[in-house]
Amino acid sequence: MAELKEYQGRAKHWLRRYFENCRQLGNANTAFYQTTSEIHEGDGIPYRGVKELPGLPYVCLRIPTGGGKTLVGCHAVAVANKHLLQAEHSLVIWLVPSDAIRGQTLGSLRDRTHHNRQALEQFLGSVTVLDISEALSIKKADLDSSTVIVVATMQAFRREGTEDLLVYRSSGALMSHFQGVPEAILRDVERDADGVVPKSLANVFRIRKPVLIV
């Protein structure tokens, strides 16, 4: 397995510190200022959160062009599981800008001889890598027993111009994900005009509150 370069390891270290501060301080904004104060020895940087997702811990890791962003992303999943979610498994949505990069990313994350896949397995144990079409029939047991990474393009979730995207359609294959879900969690899902919760992949994601890598 490929060892992290010094700058990659440094990015991983500060991501871990940010998540640790999120857990300790209970606030993504304060944690960001605290972490950047540690990086810059007293000069913290103001936090720019996601307006639509208040309170979401959100951070950008700066890696040089050709500097192994996918490998750092693989390490970042384990860091999020352990230091932010404090969970053995998680759901991860891995968004890429094009079909070509989607194919490359899927290939490296599925190939057990590739250092990206090896990094996932070393730190996460059981890992399942899917594309969107495969995720449309994902089983609840898979999400409960392994870290599931869904690789997709950003266009797969953009609703502009169409209401027919597969991720927003109800599917009988996803029914089990909605059984026994507390009403407090269902408050966060989308509903149709009649107030009915579509049994869609998008709503499975909303219930599971995934790690998001862009």
Provide a brief overview of the structure.
This protein has 214 residues and is α/β, with parallel strands linked by helices. 43% of the residues lie in helices and 10% in strands.
How is the topology of this model organized?
Blueprint: H1 6-25, H2 28-39, H3 69-85, E1 91-96, H4 99-110, H5 115-124, E2 127-131, H6 132-135, H7 140-145, E3 147-153, H8 183-186, H9 201-208, E4 211-213
Parallel strand pairs: 1-3, 1-4, 2-3
Helix pairs in contact: 1-2, 1-3, 3-5
Report on the architecture of this protein.
This protein is an alpha/beta fold and 214 residues long. It has helices spanning 6-25, 28-39, 69-85, 99-110, 115-124, 132-135, 140-145, 183-186, 201-208, and strands at residues 91-96, 127-131, 147-153, 211-213. Strands 2-3-1-4 form a 4-stranded parallel β-sheet. It is globular. The model has no long low-confidence stretch (mean pLDDT 92).
Essential attributes:
single chain, 214 residues, alpha/beta, 4-stranded parallel β-sheet, 9 helices, 4 strands, globular
